[in-house]
Design brief:
It is built from 11 helices and 12 strands. It is an alpha+beta fold. The longest helix has 57 residues, at 6-62. The structure holds adenosine-5'-diphosphate.
């Protein structure tokens, strides 16, 4: 498919809009202006008529009519209009020098206008070309009330007037053209400016898609594009983190898989080739068994998580006593607690706390949180487990340790799969960073959530919620 450019589309939109506006505006203005122009011209002729009427009346009264013809000539040249004087019988008695002299003594061609002025009205009319006027003419009649006169008629050639109108229009069209050129230039520049961020983001997306997750776009504006750029960078950061987590995980998992395999290989080879005396074989077989258990725990975790993440968690829900599950999980941790000389103290809201959920999954949540608390506690540390009931038919379970704590930066990611805080990496060779991811997925499947509060060096508190059973 042919690539369509946004710049072109936007320009086309701008230009069409401007063109439509200019055409509508131009049309309205030209109609209004033409009407105004014609009205002006008509008024000028009326003024002229008034002047002649005064001059004629004065001349008639003083009996000095000799100058009249000269005055008509001057006015005719000045105004560009022919002047006729018509008597009450509708006969032309005087014509300015520019007009055909043959008209004098003839009946005036537009008797309807003569009737108008005879009634004392100022009349005006646009007339087509006739035998008297070989071009269309604007005729304005002004009444004259001396002697046996009917009125004065000023006749102005329409094409002449239109000529100056056309000149005005030409200037108008030329300026519209210039404005239009500017509009094209302006729309091109603004369209380009508008689409530049999109192009930059597109380029950045390609760079990121090719595997360079460090690439970011520059945020230059505070508008929707700025917002988009921010979201884009945020997305790039998430991708970068995911990529880092994935790499770390592969590194961790391969390390975790390789080390037990190598040691098992070593022990088994030694036993087979007889390097290990028979009486010591049992001890080594136990070590091998430990290692296989560790391997299966790791693979189980990965399988659990992938199943949970592809939202295939099927809950087997029932009502059960939460206290009992907590106690059972504390018992399971006894070897680790003894090793660290650590203590778990449980404070229950009630003798029995009945909750509703999948017993195995909730148990796993408790187990993961407790074993983390023990793992990251100092020797002789105290871990507190507490349940509280809320009036919203929920039970809150908090698991608090006084261990190394989690930095605010790490707190954002610890629930992500395969994430291990840098500082704990050496301390916790066994972990693969999936325990908390499983916790979150299992709780989410129950529509419940988990939060963490932690101060580095001071310990962490994880709190999650459960539904109280109906009874
Ligand atoms: P793992 O399965 O390896 O224990 P988790 O998902 O349970 O991984 O935990 C992820 C990371 O979160 C741990 O590697 C550790 O850095 C941090 N973390 C979890 N719980 C605690 C805690 N109680 N105290 C300090 N750090 C913790």
């Amino acid at each position: 498919m042919r690539k369509e450019s946004i710049v072109k589309k936007q320009m086309l939109q701008y230009i069409t809009t401007i063109l439509i506006c200019v055409l509508i505006l131009g049309g309205i203005l030209s109609v209004v202006y033409t009407q105004h122009y014609m009205k002006e011209k008509r008024n000028e002729l009326i003024q002229q008529g008034r002047k002649i009427s005064i001059a004629f009346t004065n001349a008639y009264r003083t009996g000095n009519l000799s100058n009249l013809s000269y005055e008509l000539q001057v006015l005719e040249e000045y105004m560009g209009a022919g002047i006729l004087m018509v008597n009450a019988d509708g006969v032309v008695v005087l014509a300015s020098p520019g007009l055909d002299e043959m008209m004098i003594g003839q009946s005036f061609a537009f008797q309807d206008l003569v009737e108008g002025v005879k009634e004392g009205n100022i009349v005006s009319s646009e007339r087509k070309a006739t035998t008297i006027f070989d071009v269309p003419t604007l005729v304005v009649g002004y009444p004259l009330s001396v002697g046996k006169m009917a009125g004065i008629f000023m006749c102005r050639s329409m094409p002449e007037m239109e000529q100056s109108l056309y000149q005005m229009y030409q200037v108008g069209v030329a300026s519209i053209f210039v404005v239009f050129l500017f509009a094209i230039l302006f729309s091109y520049l603004t369209s380009r400016k508008m689409t530049r961020p999109i192009k930059e983001m597109n380029d950045a997306a390609k760079v990121i898609a090719s595997g360079n997750f460090e690439h970011r776009v520059e945020i230059t504006s505070n508008d929707e594009f700025g917002e988009l750029a921010k979201s884009f960078n945020h997305m790039a950061e998430s991708l970068q983190n995911n990529d880092k987590t994935r790499r770390d995980f592969i590194a961790n998992v391969s390390h975790d898989l390789r080390s037990p395999l190598t040691s098992m290989q070593g022990f088994l080879t030694a036993m087979l080739d007889g390097t290990v005396p028979l009486e010591k074989q049992e001890k080594y077989l136990h070590i091998v068994l430990e290692e296989t258990l560790r391997l299966s725990r790791l693979t189980e975790g990965i399988v659990d998580l992938s199943r949970a993440e592809s939202s295939k968690i099927i809950l087997d829900e029932s009502d059960f006593d939460l206290n009992e599950q907590i106690r059972a999980n504390i018992n399971l941790l006894e070897p680790q607690l003894n090793e660290k000389n650590a203590v778990i103290k449980a404070i229950f809201a009630d003798q029995i706390t009945m909750v509703h959920g999948d017993i195995d999954k909730i148990s796993r949540v408790i187990q993961n949180l407790l074993s983390n608390a023990v793992k990251f506690s100092p020797t002789g540390g105290l871990i507190e487990v507490e349940t509280t009931k809320t009036d919203r038919k929920k039970v809150l379970v908090s698991i608090k340790d006084h261990g190394i704590g989690i930095s605010p930066e790490d707190q954002k990611y610890i629930f992500d799969r395969f994430y291990k805080a840098d500082r704990t990496r050496n301390q916790d060779m066994q972990g693969s960073g999936i325990g908390l991811a499983i916790v979150r997925e299992f709780l989410q499947a129950h529509n419940e959530g988990i939060t963490v509060k932690s101060t580095q060096g001071d310990g962490s508190t994880f709190v999650f919620s459960l539904k109280m059973s109906e009874e």
